[in-house]
Amino acid sequence: MREMLKHCNVFFDGRGYAGVASAVEVPKLEVATREYNAAGMAGPIEVRMARLDSVLMAKLTFQGFDPNLYQNLFTPEGDLIPLTIKGSTEDGDGRTHAHTINMRGFIKTLDEGEWKDGEEVPLKIDVSLRYYKRIRDAVELFEIDQENMIFRVNGTDKLAQHRANIAR
Questions:
Q1: How far is 50 from 77, CA to CA, in rounded Å?
Q2: Cα–Cα distances in Å, from 97 out to 17, 85, 86?
Q3: Which of 133, 140, 162 is nearest to 149 (CA)?
Q4: d(CA 121, CA 119)
């Protein structure tokens, strides 16, 4: 049996939201490509461009009203909100695994949705990320820092030579 998420917690701007955060959509990683076609080829192929194709976004859903979540809507450009997701999975052998996702970004969308008397009103927040780091059992899987041109996979910086080539 594969690993199954058993428990998770969300920390938004340093505050824990156990029992309040009900869903997290972690960023989708999509490599940028361009179509390439040249003489002698039977048709075009996609070539990887050593960067991501789109902005990294995290989507969170909270239950209830917490004024601390609202205060971060219009933070100044230089201020990034720290966001950490902690998860615990269990595999078919009964072993548990610790998962951590560290992110920094700003609130792009704050959506209270539809209010109905007597029902919970979920607060949905979309966070545009500038930094993303994914760890499993203390092993770094990814570290992505778009502004500083860092893209590490399993500890190997895939853009180090490109940075050196452009004196960055």
A1: 26
A2: 21, 14, 11
A3: 162
A4: 6
All residues at 6 or more sequence positions from 92 whose CB lies less than 8 Å from its CB, including other chains: 1, 2
Bridge partner residues of 100 (DSSP): 86, 135
Give the residue among 111, 117, 58 at the shortest CA–CA distance from 84: 58
Residue 71 is predicted with a pLDDT of 85
131: amino acid identity, one letter: Y
The two structure tokens encoding residue 127? 């966070």
**Separation of alpha carbons 60 and 117, rounded Å:** 23
Residue 98 in tokens? 């610790």
107-141 confidence digits (pLDDT tens): 999 999 888 898 888 999 999 999 999 999 999 99
Which amino acid would we find at residue 167? A
